Amino acid sequence: MGRYTGPVERLSRREGVDLELKGARRLAGKGALERRGALPPGQHGGGRRVKTSVYAQQLRETQRAKRYYGVREKQFRNLMAEAMKRNAENSVTGERLLQLLELRVDNIIVRLGFASTRAQARQFVTHGHVLVNGIRHTIPSARLKPGDVVTIKEGSPVRTIATESTELIAVVPGWLEADHDGLSGRVLRIPERHEIQVPITEHLIVEFAGR
Predict the structure, then answer these.
(1) Based on the domain organization, do 73 and 155 belong to the same domain?
(2) What is the DSSP secondary-structure string of 115-140?
(3) pTM of the model
(4) How far is CA 54 from CA 45, 76, 108, in A?
(5) Does one domain contain both 92 and 154?
(6) pLDDT in tens, the chain (211 residues)
């Protein structure tokens, strides 16, 4: 499945939650959810929502997670397989899945406040504007580990954008350490579930994967 290139706010309206696909516009309260409410897009979006089956709820939650983190189908399946291999219990497997997603380079750049969306963060990485432990890094899906340092490259043209983005972030998660003046950040540890604030019910994803 290719990457979605249409209007991203349609995805948030489709899922009924803020998928954080818009940057400054969303933070300023001008997103589609604030203006139109949590109604599906399209001509018939204003109608009442039909009661869905358990299978449909599990599928929707899986789609929501992929769209929130900007992960493609194959990448998501691989992450799910890794999470299930490490843990047997559904709750632990779901937590591990979210940890694997949170430790992606593109997500960490957003969590540090250097980019306002994951799409923007991926662009920073693929265009060579990001250093990991002082080395140029171009793979957004790469997973970082405690102790790794992420920096927006000195002299990069995106440093101005990154600096402006840091002014929009309210709080940097406790499992990360950010230096907004130097546009640098460090992974302190693997995040715990209560530190991962996402609109995702992970046990439904695990149940869907186990069908």
Answers:
(1) no
(2) -SSHHHHHHHHHTT-EEETTEEE--T
(3) 0.80
(4) 22, 21, 32
(5) no
(6) 456 555 556 665 666 667 676 655 555 555 555 555 555 655 555 555 567 899 999 999 999 999 999 999 999 999 999 998 876 566 689 999 999 999 999 999 999 999 999 999 999 999 999 999 999 999 999 999 999 999 999 999 999 999 999 998 889 999 999 999 999 999 999 999 999 999 999 999 999 988 7
Q: Which domain holds residue 21?
A: 8-101+197-209
How far apart, in whole angstroms, are the C-alpha atoms of residue 25 and residue 49? 27
Give the Cα separation of 182 and 162 in Å (integer).
11
Q: Which residue type is seen at 108?
A: I
**115: CATH:** 3.10.290.10
Q: Into how many domains does the chain fold?
A: 2
Which amino acid does the sequence have at 125?
V
